[in-house]
Design goal:
The protein is about 20% helix and about 50% strand. The chain has 2 helices and 5 strands; from the N terminus they run E-E-H-E-E-E-H. Strand 1 (about 1-5) and strand 2 form a beta hairpin. InterPro entries: GNAT_dom (IPR000182).
Length: about 55
């Protein structure tokens, strides 16, 4: 998982296995781009954006 901070937002990204996509969606992640294949591994890039006010 990768975390990036913007002014009022924290962004977490994952490369989810296709079987795990519904679980990540239940956690609030959204599909970030089309499915990817890298060296024969298929994954779904996903992102979770949270405002700093929501974390307090």
């Amino acid at each position: 998982m990768v975390s990036k901070q913007h002014r009022n937002e924290v962004e977490y990204t994952v490369n989810a296995s296709l079987n795990a996509v519904p679980v990540y969606e239940a956690f609030g992640f959204e599909v970030a781009m089309p499915r990817q294949v890298h060296r024969g591994i298929v994954f779904q890039p996903m992102v979770l954006r949270q405002g700093r006010d929501a974390e307090a």
